[in-house]
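ok posting inputs for the GL7 job
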Amino acid sequence: MFKTKKEFKKEFENACLVVVGKDFEDCSTEEKYFALAKLISSQAGELHEQKIAHKKIYYFSMEFLIGKLLENYLMNLGLTKTVSEGLKDMGESLEDYFDIEKDPGLGNGGLGRLAACFMDSLASLGYEAQGVGIRYRFGLFKQRIEDGRQVEDPDNWLEKDYPWEVKHLEAAVPVKFGGRVEKSYDGNEMHYQWIPEETILAVPYDIPMVGYDGKQVNTLRIWSAKPMEEGFDMDAFNRGDYAHANKHRADVQAITDILYPNDQSLSGRILRLKQEYMFTAAGIMDIVNNFKKQYGNHWEIFSEKVAIHTNDTHPAVCAPELMRVLMDQEGLGWDESWKIASASVSYTNHTILPEALEKWPIDMFRNLLPRLYDIIEEIDRRYRDSFHKNVDGWQEQLKNTAILWDGQVHMANLSVIVSHHVNGVADLHTEILKNIVLKDFYTLVPEKFNNKTNGISHRRFFAQANPSYRKLLEETIGKGWIHHPEELENLKKYEENVSFLEKVEASKKENKIRLANYIKKMTGIEVNPNSIFDIQVKRFHAYKRQLLNVLKIMDLYNRLLADPNFHIHPVTFIFAGKAAQGYTFAKDVIRLICAIADVINHDDRVNRMIKVVFIPNFSVSNAQIIYPAAEISEQISTAGMEASGTGNMKFMMNGAITLGTLDGANVEITQLVGSDNIKIFGLKAHEIETMRHQGSYLAWTLYHENQRIKKVLDQLMDDTYSHLSGGFDLIYDSLLRDNDSFFVLKDFESYMNAFEELVGLYEDKKTWWKMSVHNTACSGYFSSDRTIEEYVQEIWKL
Ligand code: GL7
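and the output
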């Protein structure tokens, strides 16, 4: 490992020769970036050592939103200074290299980013772990705004090779699909042989996961689908039928071509089930092969050496697949296999939205995975047998918890039944699982249930993303918090220290200017860094209620025009986030934001006071510029619907004040910072639940009773905003004709009041920056290091 600038320069020049095949001077910036990434990757590789005796966690996730790696790894390895100064000597700028790096979009949002934060914490805390995922050829689409609408472009992140990955053809494993199961009896026991219709090859690519201080380097192993044989039909080729010659290869590769957007209904998506089975089966085979290499046939210690975690239900077939391998390949019996699988597998639920709880039609599942289906059917049969038929209400309980019901395979029920632990991702969410969504399971097996409140990598989203604040902290409370985020508490001593508060304000200003420059570059819009930055960034979804925020801005605009005495501190409203391609409502809300931005930003009467910005293509990399610049963090989902949220934590840590409902982890933020340091509004989860139940809410009444609401809704239908890209009937109808399922209008007034009170506080600098520092000081709890320690101690027992 190079230590000095001089050594670095020598090794870097050498890397250019070896990796690119050219002298340093002849390399393009991109080639130099590539060589540097390879060099850092190999340095990290030297730190990787197998600790054989330890238990290892395999984290199965359909999504890993890892973000850019170079800057993060230089920080983690303590090489930033050496490399940046070395490059400067060579006439190069490290920042240029950061810009070139691709940000692989291998996830939709919070769930995928959580998996990446967990990989960071696992390595930084020194635990042996492997992430198991899919190498999608195209990440989530890139978002562009054209004429005020979202346009999707493919994200071809592998176009020019990805320097952090290493292909391991020697570790490829076959994966079967379709066909039939042959049963034979040898006079003693039954044997099952799966004769597949199709076998493909799953090929792993490894990306190093480098912990802070280089303590531990783990791997993220992502799988790609290839044909078993080269899959090239020579006969067809010789006939000149080139399309057919390549067809098989193309069909197989299609399995790992695209990432499914999370908002689309999954019914009938056979390709999605293929994806899920492919990476799960490959991951399980890999685990079994490694176990056998180390421990031979000592299956009795399997669950002492291996923990398997399923991130949501997408890898739910982990347990039955492990049983299949143990029984059909290793010759173990049912009971033993069941014991091993259920002692190894655990499950996190991430959502209560019914459309996201996966179900597969039985016929489809059985046709695609006949042997797995046999096993699942037997798990289900035994589960049914276990019911005491003399207990009142057992039929209802069974109906709600069975795996096979109504012609469908219920993946959440499978996950709960085969797992030793089941957890939700914030206190409120876990309570909702226990009392509503998985109520019957909770009655039957309460000991399985536990909460693990989400966390974020405070190193990436704070130490790395907010260098000015980091520096200030290092001068004030030292560096200990980078290892021990709970030490951020020490900041509490400085909450009354005016000169410290001024420095925090100055650091925020620096971050706001950085964001303002980015906004200018991406949208052409000039924003005022002295205005309050009020930010809502996340996927677009009706329950997240970006619409409520938009109605707020429309109302403010109306009042500013109507009343010359109406005064508020200038505010810039900033939005970012993607809407799933097929989710028309969400796309319309983006269109509405762009439309009001266009009107308001061009209206001289108001635009010294308010401006509206939509930043295109929200991703991990621009998120790192956005969070540190925020002053108000909008977390305004309908209470009970956001399982946790993690953006809320990133904002809070960077000193923004949350304006939010009592939903997801906002509840815990409130408990930690105290009600004086957060602005909570709106209905509570149980109130919403009751109103839904009673059907007592009528949106029409509010429309008629509240003039401000009536005005903004009418403006959706007249020509106030429709010039740019058309009308907004769908939004209007969702609020009035469909009776506002997400309680937007019901929460409107309390939201407006909360917003105005919060903005009012900004006038008093001392109060504001004290609140801000208090939020940062309390945010250590939301480091994913804390979350991971809880998983390790209470679930995985590493
Ligand atoms: C999510 C939840 O919606 C989100 O609230 C949570 O923070 C995240 C991580 O636990 O998981 N579930 C989900 O399907 N997505 C999420 O972001 C996409």
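notes: The two ends are 29 Å apart (CA to CA). The chain has two domains: 48-67+103-453+790-795, 467-782.
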